[in-house]
Every structure is written in structure tokens, then in C-alpha cells.
tRNA (Adenine-N(1))-methyltransferase (Lysinibacillus agricola), 230 residues
Amino acid sequence: MNAQKLSKRLETVAKFVPSGAVVADIGSDHAYLPCYLIHKGIASYAIAGEVVKGPFESAVGQVQKEGLTEKITVRLANGLAAVEAADHVDTVTIAGMGGPLIVSILEKHPEKLEGVTRLILQPNIHAKVIREWALAHNWAIQDEEILEEDDKIYEILVLQRSPMTLTEPEILFGPKLMQRKSPAFIKKWSREKENWQRVLQSIEGADQTPEIEEKRAELVALLDLVEGVL
């Protein structure tokens, strides 16, 4: 992977960036995504935010190497603190982290999202918490994608400002993903179903404490949901 050829995962993130967008890529690592977006003429300007000094320095070096210092600003900052009002950012991308960490980044500096109209979020795990956050903060799911790369399955959520309603299954599985039921979707939830069945089997013979009963009820409910979708 490099600034000209992204991984399948980041290429999918890139395809949801609107033409002419001013993008803030949070946790930008080597700044491959912002460089790609500028090279392809998708974004008009980009901020690459990185909280760790090593990746920050890599991003600075990459932007210089690509000759994009006038189009990409690299900042050493924690999460959305990398965004300044003068940037006029309208699109934020956050990729390659767990869902809870992405939510904590969004919640830490909500004022930084005031001019933002699109969020493109790629959690490695626990996409459900992002859907819960979106519901609570008047962001609607415009699109979703699920893909497999190097035997890992990733979800990508595209959010626009608007209230929405979701059912319990839609929060867990994703409303768009549930409709399409792609091979990656079937594979992910078939694996989860097998894991839940294994755990349920392992606790069936345990002493039935209130904690075990609660866990059993939770697993049975999850299995009911997943069986209704697959």
C-alpha cells in the first residue's frame, strides 16, 4: 500500500468522500488516504491528524515526498483537536480503530463537528456502538459497506446529518448491510453465531448464578437476532 494504491479497505473509505471535499483524516498514520484523495482530485484540501509522534513524522515525510505540502496539512494532535475552524472541514474520516475509540474521538470535541456534513467511519470492531452514537446525535446512515481483506472483515459507515430510527437488529447488523446480505456479511455473522453457540454451550453446565443466567439470556437473544437475519 502507498499513496497511489490504497488497501481495499481504505479505497472503499475513499470512494465515499464527496468531490471537492475538505477532509480531516483522524489517525492518518502515513497520510496515505489524504495523499490519495488529493492525487485523484477527489478532495480539494486535507488535514492529516495523528496523535503519535512516529506516525506524525511519517505523515509529514509522506506529504513532502508526494509534493503535496500546499494541499495537505499534517498536525500532531489528539483526535478532532487536529481540526481548526479556519480549515472549513466538511468531511471527517476515521479508519482502523475500534468502534468505542471512534465514538470517544467524536464525543471529545463535538464543537469540531459543527461544519461537518459527512462522517466516514471504519471500525475494526464493534460498529454497533457507532450506530448507537449516530442515533443519539442526529446522524443518519446514508450508506454502509462490509468487506473482507486479508481474512479480516471490516465495516464502513457513512453518516450524514439527519435524525433516523433503527430497530434493534438494524443497530447490531446495519440497516443497509442487512438488506444486501453480501458474502462478507454472511461470513461475519456466521462466525459470530458459532462463537455465541460455543459460549452458550460452555455455560450450560455451570452453576446457575444470576450472572450466568444473565449471560445465558443475552446469548439466547443474540442468537435469535442472528438467526432471523441469516
